[in-house]
Design brief:
The protein has helices spanning 2-27, 52-64, 79-82, 146-153, 174-184, 194-201, 234-246, 248-258; strands spanning 33-37, 40-41, 45-46, 68-72, 91-96, 103-104, 109-118, 139-142, 160-163, 189-193, 207-211, 222-229. The protein is of the alpha/beta class. The N and C termini lie far apart (64 Å). Keywords: Plasmid, Signal.
Length: 272
C-alpha cells in the first residue's frame, strides 16, 4: 500500500514539472525582449531609458534581434508576483544571485557596498567601518540593508541614521536624500550600495565613493547580480547565459561608463 502511494506521489510530481515548464513557455514572448522594471530606480532603471540596466537590456535586445519593451511597476512588495509571474515580462534585470523568487541566470557583474564622504572631509581616507575616525560621527544607511548590521557591530549604532528601504521611488529618493545630507554636512558619511551610489558620485566635485573591501563576517557586503526569469524557463536562462558569456566585455563597459564599482566574484578586489 505504502509503495503504491509513493508511486502515485512521484507520478504527480513528474507530471507537475513539465506542466510548470509548459506554462512558463506559453507566457514567454518570442517577438520581444520583455523587461519588467521600476520606472524611477535611478541610476539603474528609468522610464526614459537612461539607466544603466536599460542600456544592458538594449544590448541584449540587439544581440537577440528583438525589440526591447517594458512593463513598468514600482519595486517593493509584490513586484515579482505582479510582473514576472503574471506574465507581463520575461526578464527582470539586476537581481541578486540566490533569490528564490526567480530563477537566476549566471551573474553578469559583482558589486559592493561602500562609504560616501565629502572629498574634503577628514573621513575621506576611511575604507573600513571599524576605523576609529568614524566613532561619534553621523552616518546614514538605508534601513534593512547589510551595512546596518556592520555599523552596529562597529559601535556606530547610536549615531546611525536610517532611510526607508521600501518606498515608491517615483515620489521618494532615499539614496539621493542621504547623498545630499552628506554634501550639506548634515551627515558625515553614508554607507550605500555601489550601483546606486557610485554612478551618482562619479563626476561629483564634492563627494566620493570608497568600496568597503575589508569588512568581515555576515551579512556579506558584495553581491553577484543576475537576471531573473520564471521557474521553468530553462531555455531562456541558457540563452541569456550564453549572451552574458559572449558579451561580458560590452556589459563591463556599460557598467564602468555608468560608474558602477565592480569587484571580483568574491568582493576582494576592484576590477579595472
Amino acid at each position: 500500500m505504502a509503495r503504491r502511494i509513493l508511486s502515485a506521489a512521484l507520478i504527480l510530481v513528474c507530471a507537475a514539472v513539465p506542466a510548470a515548464a509548459q506554462m512558463a513557455m506559453e507566457m514567454r514572448s518570442t517577438t520581444e525582449f520583455r523587461v519588467c522594471a521600476d520606472p524611477a530606480n535611478a541610476p539603474m532603471s528609468m522610464e526614459d531609458g537612461s539607466g544603466f540596466e536599460n542600456r544592458i537590456a538594449d544590448l541584449f535586445g540587439e544581440k537577440l534581434g528583438l525589440p526591447v519593451t517594458y512593463f513598468w511597476f514600482p519595486s517593493g512588495m509584490g513586484f515579482i508576483q505582479r510582473t514576472l509571474r503574471a506574465g507581463e515580462c520575461d526578464v527582470i534585470m539586476g537581481f541578486a544571485q540566490g533569490d528564490e523568487l526567480v530563477q537566476n541566470t549566471n551573474h553578469y557583474y559583482t558589486s559592493i557596498y561602500g562609504i560616501v564622504t565629502r572629498q574634503d572631509s577628514d573621513l575621506a581616507s576611511v575604507d573600513h567601518l571599524k576605523d576609529a575616525a568614524l566613532q561619534g560621527r553621523e552616518i546614514g544607511v538605508v534601513a534593512g540593508t547589510p551595512p546596518a548590521d556592520h555599523l552596529v557591530r562597529a559601535g556606530l549604532g547610536k549615531t546611525m541614521h536610517g532611510a526607508a528601504l521600501m518606498v515608491d521611488r517615483r515620489v521618494q529618493d532615499p539614496v539621493g536624500d542621504l547623498l545630499e545630507q552628506v554634501r550639506s554636512g548634515e551627515l558625515d558619511a553614508a554607507v550605500l550600495w555601489g550601483p546606486l551610489a557610485g554612478p551618482r558620485v562619479k563626476d561629483d566635485p564634492d563627494l566620493q565613493f570608497t568600496p568597503l573591501l575589508k569588512e568581515e563576517g555576515n551579512p556579506r557586503m558584495f553581491y553577484r547580480i543576475t537576471m531573473g526569469v520564471r521557474n521553468g524557463e530553462d531555455d531562456l536562462k541558457r540563452e541569456l547565459n550564453s549572451q552574458i558569456r559572449r558579451n561580458q566585455d560590452e556589459i563591463n563597459t556599460i557598467l564602468r561608463d555608468a560608474g558602477v564599482p565592480l569587484t571580483d566574484d568574491y568582493g576582494k578586489e576592484m576590477l579595472e
